[in-house]
Write a structure and sequence with these properties.
213 residues, 11 strands, four-stranded mixed beta sheet, Rossmann fold, 42% helix, globular
Amino acid sequence: MAGNLEINRRGLMLVLSSPSGAGKTAISRALLQSEPRLTLSVSATTRLMRTGEVEGKDYFFVDGAKFSRMVDDDEFLEHAKVFDHSYGTPLGPVEAALGEGKDVLFDVDWQGAQQLSERSPHALVSVFILPPSMAELERRLKGRAQDTDDVVAGRMARAPIEISHWPEYDYIIVNRDLDESVAKVRAILQAERLRRDRQIGLGDFVRDLTGQS
């Protein structure tokens, strides 16, 4: 009977990118709270730990020498340098999660998204988050109270370059309202999970369902 056949699913890689301050981190946190089959890819970084961050949960904090060794040993799925610091996604945990049918969330910039697309194009679903305006982006950056005025100015100067890569993404969301943006990304995730080529055993299920050999 067809009901006895299981249809499993390959995990997918969900990439969220945005200029700093546009909301990708807040959206990521909301998704992780509401999607039990979604796990966060924890990156390694050479930047210093910020107040409230936890080693192994927010990032793996490493020095420059160790990061370089990891690059040389091909331990990263992607890596990039952003604002004078290096970031990279360890390969092993991602492959393990995808093999278990879990989806992996990536909070990376356009450089990381390009590398992920080159290495795993069929597993990748990419979403770019835009701010409603540059004035609102600056307001959000200043409101975080995490960075100095010089750092905020640097992020604002870099934002147009980051935004220029929007055509490289599968989906674009303007983050005017956080809850609305989260709902849109969840809709994307649900639709991508149902893609025919992600469902393992679907052919056997249909053949059994229709009585075909």
